[in-house]
Design a protein that fits this description.
By secondary structure, the protein is an alpha/beta fold. Helix content is 40%, strand content 16%. It has two domains: 33-115, Leucine Dehydrogenase, chain A, domain 1 (Rossmann fold, 3-Layer(aba) Sandwich), CATH 3.40.50; 140-273, Rossmann fold (3-Layer(aba) Sandwich). The structure holds NADPH dihydro-nicotinamide-adenine-dinucleotide phosphate and 5,10-Methenyltetrahydrofolate (GUE). The site of 5,10-Methenyltetrahydrofolate has 23 residues, from helix 2, strand 4, helix 6 and helix 10. Catalyzes the oxidation of 5,10-methylenetetrahydrofolate to 5,10-methenyltetrahydrofolate and then the hydrolysis of 5,10-methenyltetrahydrofolate to 10-formyltetrahydrofolate. NADP(+) binds at residues 166-168, 242.
Length: 294
Amino acid sequence: MTATILDGKTVSAALQDDIAQRVEQFKAKTGVTPCLAAVLVGEDPASQVYVRNKERACAKVGMTSQLFRRAEDISQADLLALVQQLNQDDNVNGILVQLPLPKHLDASEVLDAIDPRKDVDCFHPSNVGLLSQGRPNFLPCTPHGVVQILKHFDLPTAGKNVVILGRSDIVGKPLALMLMQRTSQTCGSDYANATVTVAHSRTPNLKELTLQADILVAAIGVAKFVTADMVKPGAVVVDVGINRTDDGLCGDVDYDALLQVAGAVTPVPGGVGRLTVTMLMENTLQAAMIQAGG
Ligand SMILES: NC(=O)C1=CN([C@@H]2O[C@H](COP(=O)(O)OP(=O)(O)OC[C@H]3O[C@@H](n4cnc5c(N)ncnc54)[C@H](OP(=O)(O)O)[C@@H]3O)[C@@H](O)[C@H]2O)C=CC1
Ligand SMILES: Nc1nc(=O)c2c([nH]1)NC[C@@H]1CN(c3ccc(C(=O)N[C@@H](CCC(=O)O)C(=O)O)cc3)C=[N+]21
């Protein structure tokens, strides 16, 4: 058996064409060009990849992007002041503060300071609350990207056992929230209604769990952690990991070995990461529309 490769590039290109058209219409109607501001403190490698690809994608769909690079040793007060400045800037529709932030900074305080209407990452407590209640304002980019890939390849989640490795606020937790709902805001009830298990570093007997998964999502940040013996034959494997190794970028799953076992698998690069960027473009357009009054 050779797994279907869930190519994120095709999915992303189709969605970006649609976003570009809606950006064009929005511009024609309002005269406003949606603008995304990203704040990058220090030099986290995964963030560098993200920042580069975001700038390209903004240009592609007809939006503007601004990057605010700050030194590793920026103070909490200076970073909060930057966020306030972007909150108040009417030309900025979306604000994204790259994570992780250096250890001396209080990330929660910084993320809480972002105007919820510009919170394109969906990190603000009010946006997370709305998401958990099934009435989201923004959908978090990476989890939304995972759902869009599954939809594109006609792999519904309803009634399926989904096992998510990782419980972070950026991937594992919001993805679990989305998939356990009765319906997905963008993809309907077939792309929700899963039975979700979330595993983490304190989960014993991980392999017993992963072997139960119809859909296995890896988001832990450990290169090639998921091996072929952990996957049920025919299962769908979604690899969210972005790890930099001597051989380039690689995900959290042993991709080559899994091709012989899984029914379908996302590559890294060229998988979920592409969709994260694209769903960020979608959220920036949504933010601009909300700020323009509907
Ligand atoms: N493709 C994309 O668009 C994106 C990719 N990423 C990538 O995804 C990966 C995960 O990112 P993120 O969620 O931010 O990571 P975090 O480091 O915030 O969280 C990692 C999670 O994995 C768990 N974990 C770590 N090691 C193990 C293990 N050996 N067994 C079981 N669970 C484990 C941790 O458990 P515990 O909670 O107990 O510590 C934690 O819940 C990274 O490679 C990151 O670069 C991130 C965002 C977007
Ligand atoms: N506030 C915040 N929000 C995030 O969503 C966030 C973050 N901080 N910090 C870093 C992680 C990581 N992340 C990636 C997104 C896209 C690619 C991406 O474009 N990946 C391409 C890479 C292609 C390439 O250039 O080689 C791919 O996988 O095909 C990678 C990584 C978002 N993150």
